C-alpha cells in the first residue's frame, strides 16, 4: 500500500512544480492521511523541496500505536514538540532553499500563515487550493473496497436494530446502540454522530438524538455510517412504528422514495452535479415541498463524510466514474415529522450496470 | 441565563471598542457558544456595530431542536444558506458603516479572510486575538456546576465498569461501554474519545483503543470524560488486573501518584502555570523518566476539553481562582506499559480549602 501513497505524493509534487512551487505544506488532516496513510493529531506533511517529511506535534520519536511511523509510512518523521509542526516545516523548506511554498489557504488559519511568514520571511507563500481534495475525488478500487465494507457494517448494524423492540426506547439509546453495533461489526467508529429522530423529529437532517421515546404511529428515521480504515459511508432509512401507516405517511414516503430514486438514476459519469440534484429536488418541489428542502440532496464521501462533489442547485462540475456520493432527499413537516432516505453509491458507467449501490438495506416502507 | 450571555457579549464589545474596533466576528464554535448559549453547525456571531447577529449556515428560519433560535438566544438570527455565514456577516458589518472588524485570526482560515476582504474591501480586518478565550478562562459558578455534574457522571460510569468482569474484554468494547454509561447517566456525550489501554498500551496519553484483550497481570489505564451542557471534564485512572501487583507496578504507580499529588497541591491562585507543571514533572524527572514525558502535565477544561491554561514548562501566566484544570502526569515504559492518573480540579484559595477535586474516584491502586 505504501507505493500507493508515494504515487499520490509524486502526483501532487508534479502539479505543484507545474504551478511554480518548489514545495507544498499539507495541513488538512484528511489530506495528510490520503498522502501518507496516517495522520497523528496535529501532523502536517511537507512535500518537497527534497524528501517528503511528516512533522508531528506530540511524538518526537514518531512512534504510533502500530510501531515506528517512518517505517510504516516510508517518509521521514520529525517531531516538533511544543511548537507548531507547520512552522517547523516552513523552516525546513526555507533552509532547503525552496523559494516558494504552496499552503492550503482554505484550511490554514490567518494566525499560522503569519507564523510561517515570520519564521521564513523570504519564502513566498502561495495557495495550493483544493489540489489534494481534487486528487481525492475519484477513488481507486482499494478505497471503494473500504467504503463497501463500511456500508456492509452499517447495513448489519441497522438490520439488527430492526429486529429488536423499539417502542418505548429513547432516540439517544437507539443511537448509542447503533454505534456499539457498528464497532461490534468491525468499524473503527461511527462515520459521524448517529442521528435517530422519532415522531415530530423524524425526517430532519442531522437531528441530534433527544430523550423522546418511540411511540406507536411514529415515523422513525435513522441515519448512520461506519468508519472503516478512515473511509466513511452513510445510510438513512425511515420506518413507521405499529401495524398500519397512516395515509399521509404512505403518501409522503412514496414521494421521498420517488425523489431519491430519481436522484440515484441520474448518477452517471458525465452528469452535471446540479442535474442530479435537480432530478431529486424537482420531484419534491412539484409536490409543494420546495421551500423546506436542504441546500443539497447529496455529497461525496471518502476520508471525510462530507466532501466534494456537492449535489446542489448551484454546484459546478460533472460526475466521474468511481466517485462515491450520497443521495439523500428528505421532507420534514414541522410538528408532524417526515421522511429521509439516504444511500451511498459509486458512480459507474452504464456499460458496467450504472451506479453501484453500497448500502443495500431495503427501502420498502417497513412497519415495525 | 440569557442575561449571562448578554453580559459576556457586552464585555467583549467594550474590549473591542477599547481596541478601536467597531465590531467583532466570532467564528470559533466554542466561543460562539460561550457568547450565545448555542452554536448550530457553521454559525458565526457578529458583535456590533449595532445589534448582535448570529449567522447560521443551514437554517434560514433559525430554528433549532428546541424551537426558534432568536427567541432562545435573544439575538437576531439570519440564515446564509449556500453561502459562508462569515461573509454574510462581514457584508452586514460593512453596510452598517463599521470601518473595522476584529476577526479571530487563530481560527479564521486564510481563504475565508480573503473572502471577507473581497466582499467588504473598505472594511479593515483587525485581529481580535484570543479575547474570548481569555474571557472563558475564569468560570462562573454555573459553569463550575456543569463541570461538577460532568465529573459526577464520569465517576459513576467508571465506578460501574470496575464492578464488572474485565479479563478477556477488548479495549474497544470497554471504551464503548464507558461511553454508553456516560449517556445513561445524563451526559450529552463523551467529552472526548474514551481511551482504554491494557498491558503494553497502558499509561499512554490518548491511546486509541485496540482489539487487545485485558489479561491477568496487566495494567489497565482508562481516561474518559462527560460532556454536560457543553462543559467537559476528564478523569484518568490506572488499575492492575489480578490479585497481586508486581513490584515494578507498585513502584511505578507510587511514583506517578506522588507526581500527581505534587501537581494537585501546587494548584493555588497566583501560582505560575509552569511551577505547577514543574511540581509534577520533577518527581518523574528525578526518577529518570524525564525524557519520555508529555509536553504538558495538565490543561484547562470547559467548553473545550483542552483549553487554556496549559500546565507546561514553557507556559506563561498564573492561575486564578475558579479556573478548572486537569492534573495528569503519566509514565509509559515501551513494551511494558505504564501509569497515568488524571483529575479535574478547580483552583480555589487556601482560605476556601484549596483546590476543589471534581473527579472523586479513588486513586488507590486497585487490583481488579
Summarize the structure.
Chain A has ten helices and 21 strands.
For this structure, the CATH topology of the largest domain in chain A is Creatine Amidinohydrolase
SS content category of chain A? alpha+beta
Quaternary structure type: homodimer
The CATH architecture of the largest domain in chain A can be named as Alpha-Beta Complex
| Gyration radius of chain A, in Å | 23 Å
- The separation of the N and C termini of chain A measures 44 Å
Unreliable spans of chain A are: none
Q: Percent helix among the residues of chain A? A: 25-40%
Mean pLDDT of chain A comes to 92
Q: Give the helix tally of chain A.
A: 10
The CATH superfamily of the largest domain in chain A bears the name Creatinase/methionine aminopeptidase superfamily
Number of domains of chain A: 2
Shape of chain A: elongated
Strand content of chain A: 15-25%
What is the largest interface, and how many residues per chain?
A: A-B, 36 and 36 residues
Largest sheet of chain A: 6 strands, mixed
The strand count of chain A comes to 21
Task: Report what the structure shows.
Two copies of one chain form a homodimer. Chain A is α+β, with helices and mostly antiparallel strands and 368 residues long. Chain A has two domains: 2-135, Creatine Amidinohydrolase, Chain A, domain 1 (3-Layer(aba) Sandwich), CATH 3.40.350.10; 138-357, Creatinase/methionine aminopeptidase superfamily (Creatine Amidinohydrolase). Chain A contains ten helices and 21 strands. In chain A, helix 7 packs across helix 8 (171-184) and helix 9 (247-265) runs antiparallel to helix 10. The two termini of chain A are 44 Å apart. The model of chain A has no long low-confidence stretch (mean pLDDT 92). Chain A binds chain B through residues 41, 58, 63, 65, 81-82, 103, 105-111, 113-114, 127, 172-173, 176, 179-180, 183, 189, 193, 201, 205-208, 210, 294-295, 312, 314, 334, and chain B through 41, 58, 63, 65, 81-82, 103, 105-111, 113-114, 127, 172-173, 176, 179-180, 183, 189, 193, 201, 205-208, 210, 294-295, 312, 314, 334. Chains A, B: It comes from Streptomyces cirratus.
Amino acid at each position: 500500500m505504501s507505493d500507493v501513497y508515494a504515487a499520490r505524493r509524486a502526483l501532487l509534487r508534479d502539479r505543484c512544480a507545474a504551478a511554480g512551487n518548489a514545495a507544498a505544506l499539507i495541513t488538512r488532516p484528511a489530506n495528510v492521511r490520503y498522502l501518507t496513510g496516517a495522520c497523528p493529531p496535529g501532523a502536517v506533511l511537507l512535500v518537497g523541496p527534497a524528501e517528503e517529511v511528516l512533522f508531528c506535534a506530540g511524538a518526537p520519536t514518531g512512534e504510533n500505536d502500530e510501531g515506528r511511523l517512518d517505517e510504516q509510512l516510508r517518509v521521514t518523521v520529525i517531531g516538533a514538540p511544543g511548537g507548531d509542526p507547520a512552522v517547523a516545516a516552513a523552516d525546513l523548506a526555507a533552509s532547503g532553499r525552496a523559494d516558494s511554498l504552496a499552503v492550503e489557504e482554505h484550511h490554514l488559519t490567518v494566525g499560522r500563515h503569519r507564523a510561517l511568514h515570520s519564521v521564513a520571511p523570504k519564502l513566498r507563500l502561495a495557495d495550493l487550493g483544493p489540489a489534494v481534495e481534487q486528487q481525492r475525488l475519484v477513488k481507486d478500487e482499494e478505497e471503494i473496497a473500504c467504503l463497501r465494507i463500511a456500508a456492509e457494517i452499517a447495513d448489519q448494524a441497522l438490520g439488527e436494530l430492526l429486529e429488536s423492540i423499539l417502542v418505548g426506547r429513547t432516540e439517544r439509546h437507539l443511537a448509542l446502540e447503533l454505534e456499539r453495533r457498528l464497532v461490534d461489526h468491525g468499524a473503527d467508529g461511527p462515520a459521524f454522530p448517529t442521528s435517530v429522530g422519532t415522531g415530530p423529529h423524524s425526517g430532519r437532517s442531522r437531528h441530534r438524538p433527544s430523550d423522546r421515546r418511540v411511540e406507536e404511529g411514529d415515523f422513525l428515521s435513522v441515519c448512520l455510517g461506519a468508519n472503516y480504515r478512515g473511509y466513511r459511508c452513510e445510510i438513512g432509512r425511515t420506518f413507521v412504528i405499529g401495524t398500519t401507516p397512516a395515509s399521509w405517511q404512505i403518501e409522503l414516503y412514496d414521494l421521498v422514495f420517488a425523489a431519491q430514486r430519481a436522484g440515484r438514476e441520474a448518477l452517471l459519469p458525465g452528469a452535471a452535479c446540479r442535474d442530479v440534484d435537480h432530478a431529486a429536488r424537482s420531484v419534491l418541489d412539484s409536490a409543494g415541498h420546495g421551500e423546506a428542502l436542504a441546500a443539497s440532496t447529496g455529497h461525496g464521501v471518502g476520508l471525510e463524510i462530507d466532501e466534494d462533489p456537492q449535489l446542489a442547485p448551484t454546484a459546478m462540475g460533472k460526475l466521474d466514474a468511481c466517485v462515491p456520493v450520497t443521495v439523500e432527499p428528505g421532507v420534514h413537516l414541522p410538528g408532524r415529522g417526515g421522511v429521509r432516505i439516504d444511500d451511498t453509491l459509486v458512480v459507474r458507467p452504464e456499460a458496467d450496470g450504472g451506479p453501484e449501490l453500497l448500502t443495500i438495506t431495503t427501502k420498502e416502507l417497513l412497519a415495525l
